[in-house]
């Protein structure tokens, strides 16, 4: 086993996860009764769901081979450590693309499954797990099992969105999406206040494959919550190579104080808001700029300073979303902390097969903050309280500090995952949430999350 400086993307836990062993050399027979392991992808989770300070990480990054690809059907089988960027480079020349992709292409296939990631087209395609056809899962207590929606189905559902706790994903088969090109026809609508966004968002979801909004978290008064609604569709002709451009720049070091606060942040938001002309504008853009704008800045997480960053992603049901989203933005402002990357998205009704998947019908708001100690943690707790009061939840794989009670209130299905967890696998997140909850503290909560009724299945 080697000493590796593995961390999470938020960098709030820089010294956790130093013990690691490559997945290609990992053998369960070498474990002892006291060993605790955790599969590790590319470390793009923001919090501690990918960390295991009291055990060993199973580093999957070099287990990245493509095992099969059918250019006629779009079925791809690959080892869990392959990056989404590598999949795109392979399949794009054949007219295929990832059906769901998060905001970075530097996520492993196993990580995308473990976190059941979502993208800008949840309203049409659901989460990543909707497109997983099978998983080869290796466990400490039963070896390798083929898990599909019909074979070892319970374990299949727990693995999707299970944050790596059900076993080591050795390989997986996914269904890709047929597209005419990777060039995107982008439509940007500038709105002057948050209240204008919601009608625009519903219409954008009906008309476009992709839709997401950037919000100026620092705007106040009549311009409170102003921003851009950015929608997109694959162009009829254009790029078919799937090769992303190299980074424009790299952040060479971590500054002693984050520049993403105060007047620099206000200046950036002001300039970015006026970058889009008033009304609606259209242009064609490359796929990497549309899906992965931050990938063009290498090690951008360093800009948040030496203490790292917190990303707070909440989800609230449709019923009270207009008021609650405004309350969340106002709460951050009242605590004197602005968010550099403020993203607002409308989730649709496509149900994920995952047991603990984050998306459900409603609106999701993502906020980023430099870690400034106690005052930041107090603000994040206040954001949690607003979210839970509205019947919402906090994204666990973006989190590094929510309480066990907050997690359980948003994900009552955690007990089913605990029952299916590999006994030799643990994460720091699971230690500080699920494993500290006494049975009597959650006895009154429902066994299921209660949010699955009425959702449609994946469109054909």
What does this structure look like?
It is a single chain. The protein has 460 residues and is an alpha+beta fold. It has 2 domains: 113 residues, Uridine Diphospho-n-acetylenolpyruvylglucosamine Reductase, domain 3; 223 residues, Vanillyl-alcohol Oxidase, Chain A, domain 3. Strands 16-12-14-13-19-20-18-21 form an 8-stranded antiparallel β-sheet. β5 and β6 form a beta hairpin. α8 runs antiparallel to α9. The longest helix is centred in the last third of the chain and has 16 residues. The radius of gyration is 21 Å and the shape is globular. It starts with a strand and ends in a 28-residue tail after the last helix. The C terminus is likely disordered. InterPro entries: FAD-bd_PCMH, FAD-bd_PCMH-like_sf, FAD-bd_PCMH_sub2, FAD_lactone_oxidase-like, Oxid_FAD_bind_N.
